[in-house]
Amino acid sequence: MSNQQYSDTVKVTKNYYDSDDAHTFYYTIWGGEDLHLGIYESEKDPVFEASRRTIDHMASRSKFLNQKARVIDLGGGFSGSARYLAKNYGWEAVVLNLSETENQRGRKMNQEQGLDHMIEVIDGSFDTIPFPDESFDIVWSQDAILHSDNREKVLDEARRVLKPGGEMIFSDPMQADDCPEDVLQPIYDRIHLTSLGSPGFYQEYAKKIGFEKVDFEALTPHLTMSYARILEELEKREQDIAGKVSREYIENMKTGLRHWVDGGKKGYLAWGVFHFRKPQ
Predict the structure, then answer these.
(1) Structural domain that includes position 35
(2) Is residue 2 part of a domain?
């Protein structure tokens, strides 16, 4: 158990993901391994396959692709990405994740899949990474940094723990750079935040703290598709979680997913993959 002192925003996020309702929903409806957005080749792609495709797409950018590497996954959920990276690329991984409930399941799945010797799961927030400077070759994160109320600190910490020449590869649901004011309030209310990051924000701050930009790939249509597919799965499989997840949670989740889909279709939201490098 972590000894970190959490901000109010982080406490709300932790309590949410530790709840039985959230845990059961994400494990059952979101594919069983991952909690992140997928890259879809068609509207009929299974959520699980699209999620796996995202990991491959992100990993393909790394200069460590055919080498041994040590990676830390910030907000790694059930450790699904870490397992995939360990199994397919041989990378040793640390998963730093806020939810102790998710982490217990992640450790169990790591052991069941014979990967616990390659993956360490740590309870904690990525606002303060509990490792010394220059500990990792890769900082990885998928759709988690939005939950921080201090995203600058997350990037500061990522740069600190990277070795010279190391890479930060991450995705995040964001507001578009030209998003009008106030139109995303329903989404902010749903995730208990007052803002989202944006492509411009992340790139500008990364440059300010000395990261080299390798690339930013905009993939926003997949955000809209991802949330639409999860909504479709929830509506199709609602009976699978009835009695296990509260009716209030299910209805709130449907409403929240519709807000994400609507925001994506209207061009208010953004999603993509960032690739930064720490200079040698």
Answers:
(1) 8-277
(2) no
Report the b/e string of 98-132 with b at 16+ CB within 10 A.
bbebbbebbbebbeeeebbebbbbebbbbbebbee
CA distance 271 to 249: 25
Task: Kindly give the confidence (pLDDT) of every residue in the chain, 280 residues in length, as a single tens digit, with 9 standing for 90 and above.
Answer: 445 677 777 888 888 998 999 999 999 999 889 899 999 999 999 999 999 999 999 999 999 998 999 999 999 999 999 999 999 999 999 999 999 999 999 999 999 999 999 999 999 999 899 999 999 999 999 999 999 989 999 999 999 999 999 999 999 999 999 999 999 999 999 888 889 999 999 999 999 999 999 999 999 999 999 999 999 999 999 999 999 999 999 999 999 999 999 999 999 999 999 999 999 9
Whether residue 1 is contained in a domain is answered as no
Residue 3 lies in a domain: no
Distance separating alpha carbons of residues 58 and 60, to the nearest angstrom: 5
Region for residue 267 given its phi and psi (left: phi exceeds 0; alpha: psi -120 to 50; beta: otherwise): left
Whole-structure pTM value: 0.95
| Structural domain contains residue 36 | yes
